[in-house]
Specification:
Rossmann fold, single chain, 32% strand, globular, binds adenosine-5'-triphosphate, alpha/beta, binds magnesium ion, 146 residues
């Protein structure tokens, strides 16, 4: 299943992400792709808004891994957010326990995951964001497995 959207602002990207997040399920592992500044972290922010996560103190930009605690219909939901931009080797990724986190059954969201093709089969959804102008982005959401 593939869905395409045109976003004309950061606000619209967050709105698309909030609507998309409604179909996420526990155990989903989401790959966010797109160049630097494409809006991957903005999209993640929209997901955290949907689950009403409390504000994170550390900025995802400077951090490899954050856990957000939110809720859906009164039930607690944990979101694991990874940014693998600065990870240099599969061994380093293994050392932080990436694999175990993915197996945790929570919802995981991964930026720059395509740098490590050995994990390609783990992702259940891919969201790619492409520049389509200064403030415009083309978003393609693809369900990779049921
Ligand atoms: N339509 C849009 N959607 C999302 N972000 C937009 C849009 N238009 C402009 N922006 C701006 O682009 C930037 C996107 O930054 P963001 O940190 O989300 O990118 P990123 O893909 O996570 O980059 P990085 O690879 O560095 O982590 C923000 O400054 C945001 O305000
Ligand atoms: Mg980012």
């Amino acid at each position: 299943m593939i869905e395409k959207f045109l976003s004309r602002s950061e606000h619209e990207t967050r709105e698309i992400a909030r609507q998309f997040a409604a179909c996420l399920q526990e155990g989903d592992i989401l790959l966010l792709t797109g160049r630097l500044g494409a809006g991957k972290t903005v999209f993640m922010r929209g997901i955290t808004e949907f689950f009403m996560c409390s504000e994170q103190l550390s900025s995802p930009t400077f951090s490899l891994f954050n856990i957000y605690e939110g809720e859906l219909e009164g039930k607690p939901v944990s979101l694991h957010h990874f940014d693998l931009y600065r990870i240099e080797s599969p061994r380093e990724l293994e050392a932080i326990g990436f694999d175990e986190y993915l197996d945790s059954g929570y919802i995981s969201v991964v930026e720059w995951g395509e740098r490590f093709p050995e994990y390609a089969s783990r992702y259940t959804v891919q969201v790619s964001l492409e520049y389509a102008g200064d403030e415009s982005r083309c978003l393609v959401i693809k369900r990779l497995s049921a």
